Amino acid sequence: MSVMTVPAPSLPGTAHPPPPAGPVSPERETQRQIALVGWTAEAQRMLDRCVARGEAERSPVALDVWFAPAAGAAGSSAQQLSPVAISVPVEALRRLWNDTDPDALQACVDRLRTLDLVVPASGRGPVQPLSASAESVLVTL
Fold it and tell me: What is the CA radius of gyration of the chain?
């Protein structure tokens, strides 16, 4: 049985994304939080198509998601952060494997890694770049 931590391909010797390089303005943090709410809703829709159990049997699960700046996103009016790793708690996996095919679930989590977190620019002044971050995202599985 695996823990289903799904890291993206990375350079040898690299670990989780580094902590943020410096403070982010309150306005920029609010933009990031709003974008995270949208990302979570889309992630839930994707998971709903993969999980083979009714809503009544589902329960809240906190996914650990590590986001890092997307490659090639510089110069854009919005900043993209890519999920480089997603971790599903072991207890949730054990419960899911009773009625959801593990390979299908893995493929679904892999698809989640293609869903970028897009944080729009405020339109005032230069865009403050966001650093890598770790988030706990609540979904129902």
Answer: 16
Look at residue 96 and tell me if it is in a domain. Answer: yes
DSSP code for 97:
T
User: pTM surpassing 0.85?
Assistant: no
Whole domain around residue 51: which residue ranges?
26-71+79-122+133-140
The tens-digit pLDDT sequence of the chain (141 residues) is 333 444 444 444 444 444 445 677 888 889 999 999 999 999 999 999 988 888 888 999 999 999 999 876 555 568 999 999 999 999 998 988 888 888 988 999 999 999 999 998 776 666 778 889 999 999 999
3-state SS assignment for residue 120: strand
| CATH number reported for the structural domain that contains residue 101 in this entry | 3.30.1150
